[in-house]
Amino acid sequence: MEILMSQFFGALYGFLAIVLGAFGAHALKKRFTQEQLASFETGVKYQMYHALLLLVLSFNLGFNTALEGYIITCLILGTFLFSFSIYGLCLSGALGRKWKFLGPVTPLGGLLLATGWLLLAYIFIKDFMF
Fold first, then answer.
1. Is 57 buried (19+), middle (13-18) or exposed (0-12) by CB count in 10 A?
2. pLDDT tens-digit profile of 46-85?
3. Would you tell me which of 14, 68, 83, 88 could form a disulfide with 47, CB atoms 3.0–4.6 Å apart?
4. 92 Cβ neighbours under 8 A, 6+ residues apart
């Protein structure tokens, strides 16, 4: 199940990163400030990086342990919370009604992404530690 989730969300996030990146570069260029464009681009980049990571992991992890499932869950949720909260903040700010409730969501997503990476590092070194 984790393999399919990882592949599905990797492909979906990759597709959406392309679409949103093009949308941001063309349609939103005139509506966004330079700061909003830079933030939006950060969301797109992080989304694409983690889409690729999800795909790579889906072909390289055995998904024999719960820890591997936790990694995938952290990356899927973290990407969603991080990138999509940035998109929401940028879009709502450009429309003059910034959704401030999304402000704390971005670092929560970042924390989940960092946790996913840290758990992945643990998988690589655990056999040498014990």
1. buried
2. 999 999 999 999 999 888 899 999 999 999 999 999 999 9
3. 83
4. 98, 99, 102
Domain that holds residue 112: 2-129
* Token duo for residue 62: 């055995």
Contact 41, 21 (CB under 8 A): yes
Query: Sign of dihedral through CA atoms 61, 125, 75, 27?
Result: negative
Report the candidate in 32, 34, 19 with the shortest Cα–Cα distance to residue 93.
32
Q: Is 106 exposed, middle or buried (0-12, 13-18, 19+ CB in 10 A)?
A: buried
Number of domains composing the chain: 1
